[in-house]
Design brief:
691 residues; alpha/beta; Methane Monooxygenase Hydroxylase, Chain G, domain 1; polyphosphate kinase like; Endonuclease, Chain A; 4 domains; eight-stranded mixed sheet; 27 strands
């Protein structure tokens, strides 16, 4: 094998390049203006989570005095931290430029985001009234000078660092007082002011508080007062103790609580803050050299822009689509009867997620249904899935829920759901020691004339009504008894995890996913060497497993044509002579979050097609319970081939992976029509209904 200096892209750096693609959406003038602002919020939210988890992990390696080269693709952890900080500072600067551009364009649309210095008299009256009735009582304000110990700052909460320059007393030296004001989370970040003619005015909560600072510090005689934003990000990795006297749910709860006092890994501050204020804070907070210290803009927690008010300006936002029905699968009548005769596939959000809740509602009421088994990773805040399961148990069904308590950043929500479901009499399983359960499966057992018959569904995404409106995911409904027999073995593994099952149809991690996909790649390699058609088409979120990357390189050298649509991290470098010249890879970032995992192998003219909950990441292959499913129905198989092809031909939102890592948009050839895959996929399903 030809070795190159850059055989892999570091996963952390690749992730930052993914987030740069999100930032590109906020700069794209073809994206509706308010949605551009919301993409800025997504970019910021992504970055917060990156520092909580990935940066924190690398920092732990440095703090342990190790290089980390074996797990970081050959890069030293200390060097990687420096590289990350450099990239993030540049991205933050770019995000500020984009925000300023968007703000100018908003003004052209008569939408004005004003600060405390731009308030007119009528607005001042409204603002002070709003402050005293809604904000003042919510403020947590701390005077810092006389404290022996600096207060514990909340992870990613936004704070105003206040500098109060006191008036000189007789013979006294002028001195400063410092304070912190926590920006309340329970109040909308964007305060809509009374409209003036055609003009809409918004003041950000931070500036509203700045406008009223004199009312907060009335007890001081000050010469001047100023406030600048700061925030910290804490290590969010869960450290689970080994206390045998605690239940698993108690251990997770304790670990989630510990996050509140975990080590800070990033400190972001307004770059215009006074030097003496910044120095005071860094000394008091004991900010170390290995922490990422990032100068930013006037406002932090830009993730709040995901909730920027619409102001009724729907012309400045993406049109909402009406989810389509699946041809032949009616919401009226029995879904189970329809699924008994044929498999069906829904592709959210193009299709309605309501089929999943309808399936569970029907199972909850059907007198013949005896058992319902389901895995839960992330649920909506007000989950119809959970209420359907509770409804089922009240109707005498035996309901078993495998709930993953370690679903990143949803731990507390899942703990609360676990307590609620358990109180209703649902049998809960809390996973497999050492493994997260990331599979998305559901099965029911129904008593019919010929005996117990199984029905179920397998998905690439979570059973979450909220995210199903913005995440693209496949869900297969099936009554294929072989597939469902395998699924029952997966649920059996949750209960008896020392027993390793064999599966005839499903591809299950951690025991078989990697080896099965390697065999499928080997078959394509053999076909290519024999002169037969050989290809692989992959759609996934992330590719970080070096073993799978190496296997794809091997396939490329053998002549297998490989096309990949990878939304996020891609450690593979396509198009390198002698290593990956037969591999092409793109990323699509657009209106919806691309989330499905789809794998297609040419198989000498008889394609093998699979959907899966697993990306090709080490954690998915070796440290999680994941389920992949073959597609046997010829109509659905063709549909998946079609939808991949539509994604692959995208020439408006596709960025090309290359050695340059420059997120270059795919270039259209002369005369080639524009194709935006997410819009084209909706049209594809509209046409299927009409045909």
């Amino acid at each position: 094998m030809v070795k190159t200096k850059n055989e892999y892209i570091n996963r952390e750096i690749s992730w930052l390049h993914f987030n740069a693609r999100v930032l590109q959406e906020s700069a794209d003038k073809k994206v509706p203006l308010i949605d551009r602002l919301r993409f800025l919020g997504i970019f910021s939210n992504n970055l917060d989570e990156f520092f909580k988890v990935r940066y924190a992990t690398v920092k732990r390696i440095v703090d342990a005095g190790k290089t980390g080269k074996s797990v970081l693709g050959g890069e030293r952890a200390k060097d990687l931290l420096e590289e990350i900080t450099k990239i993030v500072i540049a991205q933050q600067a770019r995000s500020l430029e984009i925000f300023n551009e968007i703000e100018k364009e908003l003004k052209e649309e008569n939408i004005f985001i004003i600060d405390e210095n731009e308030v007119n008299d009528s607005q001042a009256e409204f603002i002070r009234d709003y402050f005293f009735h809604k904000v003042n009582q919510e403020l947590m304000t701390i005077i810092l000078n006389d404290l022996t110990e600096f207060p514990l700052l909340k992870d990613t909460a936004a704070y105003l660092a206040v500098k109060i320059v006191m008036k000189n007393g007789s013979g006294e030296r002028k001195h400063n007082r410092y304070a912190l004001i926590e920006i309340p989370k329970g109040i909308d970040r964007f305060v809509v002011l009374p409209k003036e003619g055609d003009k809409n005015y918004i003041i950000i909560l931070d500036d509203l508080i700045r406008f009223c600072l004199d009312s907060v510090f009335t007890m001081f005689e000050f010469e001047s007062i100023s406030a600048h934003m700061i925030k910290i990000t804490r290590d969010a990795e869960l450290d689970i103790d080994n206390d045998l006297s605690k239940s698993f749910i108690e251990k997770i709860s304790s670990s989630v609580e510990h996050r509140k006092i975990s080590d800070p890994v990033r400190f972001v501050y307004d770059k215009n803050i006074d030097k003496d204020t910044l120095q005071f804070l860094k000394e008091k907070m004991d900010i170390m050299g290995t922490d990422s210290v990032i100068p930013g803009g006037r406002y932090h927690n830009r993730r709040d822009y995901m909730g920027f008010p619409s102001l009724g300006r729907y012309d400045l936002m993406y049109d909402k689509i009406d989810p389509l029905p699946v041809k032949g699968l009616s919401m009226e009548g029995s879904l189970l009867e329809m699924i008994a005769h044929k498999d069906y596939m829904i592709y959210a959000p193009y299709h309605t997620f309501s089929y999943i809740t309808k399936f569970l509602r029907e199972a909850a009421l059907d007198p013949k249904v005896r058992t319902i088994l389901i895995t839960v990773y992330r649920l909506a805040n007000d989950s119809q899935i959970a209420s359907s399961l509770i409804n089922a148990v009240k109707n005498g069904k035996h309901v078993t829920v495998q709930i993953e308590l370690q679903a990143r950043f949803d731990e507390q929500a899942n703990i609360e759901y676990a307590n609620q479901l358990q109180a209703e009499g649902i049998n809960l399983i809390f996973g497999v020691p050492g493994l997260k359960v990331h599979s998305k499966i559901c099965m029911i057992e129904r008593e019919e004339a010929e005996g117990i018959k199984r029905y179920g569904f397998i998905s690439t995404g979570n059973f979450n009504e909220s995210t199903a409106k913005i995440y693209t995911d496949y869900t297969l409904f099936t009554a294929h008894q072989g597939i469902l027999k395998d699924m029952s073995k997966v649920f059996g593994f949750f209960e008896t995890n020392y027993k390793i099952n064999k599966y005839r149809h499903l591809i299950v991690s951690p025991h078989y996913t990697k080896s099965t996909f390697i065999k499928l790649i080997d078959r394509e390699i053999a076909n290519a060497k024999a002169g037969r058609e050989a290809y692989i088409k992959i759609k996934m979120n992330s590719l970080t497993s070096y073993k799978m990357v190496d296997k794809l390189y091997e396939a490329s050298r053998a002549g297998v044509k490989i096309q990949m649509v990878v939304r996020g991290i891609c450690c593979l470098i396509p198009g390198v002579p002698g290593m990956s010249e037969n591999i092409e890879a793109i990323s699509i970032v657009d209106k919806f979050l691309e989330h499905p995992r789809l794998f297609i192998f040419g198989n000498n003219g008889d394609p093998k097609v699979y959907i899966s909950s697993a990306d090709w990441m080490t954690r998915n292959l070796d440290f999680r319970v994941e389920v992949g499913c073959p597609i046997y129905d010829p109509d659905i198989k063709q549909e998946l081939l079609d939808t991949f092809e539509i994604s692959w031909k995208d020439n408006l939102k596709a960025r090309v992976f290359s050695e340059k890592q420059d997120n270059a948009y795919r270039q259209r050839t002369e005369g080639e029509p524009e194709l935006r895959s997410q819009f084209e996929l909706y049209h594809y399903y509209q046409k299927k209904l009409e045909s």
